[in-house]
Amino acid sequence: MSEATDTTPGWLSREELDAARDRMPILYVDAVPVRVDDTGTVTHVGLLLRVGEDGTISRALVSGRVLYHERIRDALLRHLEKDLGPMALPRIPTSPQPFTIAEYFPTPGITPYHDPRQHAVSLAYVVPVAGDCRPRQDALDLVWFTPEEAAGPDVQQEMTGGHGVLLRQALAHVGRLP
Amino acid sequence: MSEATDTTPGWLSREELDAARDRMPILYVDAVPVRVDDTGTVTHVGLLLRVGEDGTISRALVSGRVLYHERIRDALLRHLEKDLGPMALPRIPTSPQPFTIAEYFPTPGITPYHDPRQHAVSLAYVVPVAGDCRPRQDALDLVWFTPEEAAGPDVQQEMTGGHGVLLRQALAHVGRLP
Amino acid sequence: MSEATDTTPGWLSREELDAARDRMPILYVDAVPVRVDDTGTVTHVGLLLRVGEDGTISRALVSGRVLYHERIRDALLRHLEKDLGPMALPRIPTSPQPFTIAEYFPTPGITPYHDPRQHAVSLAYVVPVAGDCRPRQDALDLVWFTPEEAAGPDVQQEMTGGHGVLLRQALAHVGRLP
Amino acid sequence: MSEATDTTPGWLSREELDAARDRMPILYVDAVPVRVDDTGTVTHVGLLLRVGEDGTISRALVSGRVLYHERIRDALLRHLEKDLGPMALPRIPTSPQPFTIAEYFPTPGITPYHDPRQHAVSLAYVVPVAGDCRPRQDALDLVWFTPEEAAGPDVQQEMTGGHGVLLRQALAHVGRLP
User: Can you give the pTM of this predicted structure?
Assistant: First the structure.
């Protein structure tokens, strides 16, 4: 999950966040960007391509922290614009009900999700994006996959921390699990 | 709920539908048309204004039957275009999961919903519409209300058959119940 | 999906049902019976073992029609008691919101679900059962599988008509998709 | 929302929690305890009776923080047992999908929910309780109300911080909004 928000002026410093992370669950949002047709059917899923510090390639969902005094909706919009660019035109869901809750534990195996840095609890949403996506920041690229490709072994093994499971849960929710 | 679809060539005749209605639940969709802001917050709810055979005024949601061999998504799109016009640009939800199921019984009082003609079971969805709405067919007009107005006594008493409750359930689902 | 309800006195005759099936979608419920621990975590999924007319073995969810003037809740309870016996103690969900809608088309490939006899639209629920299950009627046996087993290739290939996909959607909904 | 968990040994001290509260959203769970009949229909809602420091009476849902390295399910169970006693036999939902997210802001009016102490984000669930409820700790009593009573003006005006709205959202979700 992205750390880009940690440098936002006025919020937690890196040291303060590190301290809090040892003590309490940190609230996140996960967004699964999708392309839809006129009937709302999901035709493609967008995954960010990232290069880790050790050079490994991974694919990831849009993800990030919710800030103090920030609404979930605003956090979703902020992270989507940060990762997909200002012309992505994301359609934030009308309902705050997430399709699932992803509990990232620092200890692997307690849930399907894992984050070695912290205990993060993420509200997960499927978000149609209608516009032009231009990845920014630490993302190299955004690639659109069909539901079949996204749930397939090639893409799944490039996703870490449980994002592969979360992606398949999203596909199940929209009726597109192969 | 609209009967406009009953005359679609190739489907049930009026007599056949009447016969089936006495024997089995009829599948419907209900759509709550909404206007949203950039963060997906519902700002307005669209209600159809109808004049009954006895001259009474009522306000209604978009509603209608699902046809044989028709997907739920296609039924939603068809009824929204029928009632709101071809330029309404409805954003059909990505997930087939309805926010609730409305069970219209011919006998009042069994559920909050009532339809004297039949036992109808309706899958209910909130649908953002981004375009220009021009009511057609038997609807006189489409009026946009704030959530507060829509849940208020004036509008609620103009809704029949349980549509008032269903509208408030939709507002609850999107976090806008006053 | 079971036809056992078709012989209930007072409802559609076989001939009438056959006629209606050619003309309109038939309303069904699907139930995924599960065992849960004290925290609500699904530990096992119950699948019915059926022997087809041609001797083939298949595994199936609890499934059946909703009758005229019958509530969804009552249909769920009736089919669960019919298939699992009177001591199963199913805990029908508090909310009528299904985890998904399964659209069984007579034509394969339109959706992941298929029923050669009819166009059936099914409201799908996960239902914890706390009691003693004794399959009745045309079911040979009820077998409990872990989520990993249920989503695995051996069980999945014994499920037909899209029940394998629906089962994995249920597992995704409860956070147990492997 | 209850502060009882803050004294749990090994977790945040009061001072540390106070510091964190000024900087980041705190994760909570809200539970609406209900009684159900055999078909899962909600017949009653349980509300805690509390006496504030200034002697005012208020009614509240079961509510509290999620601790570091604690699953949502375990937090729900812990708070329900804390507030309703060890014999309440709560049936924690199978799905982690909450019926809504309640965003309690320290500034009133941004959302329907308000908590002057902090920015709390709460995952809200309806939880059937089958056993004997004996309120403990700071709750004076637990009173069961019908859905009509719970949504009525007398009870609603005794609920603070948006719990009245959240309760009506829960009733809408289970199909029992009057």
Answer: 0.91
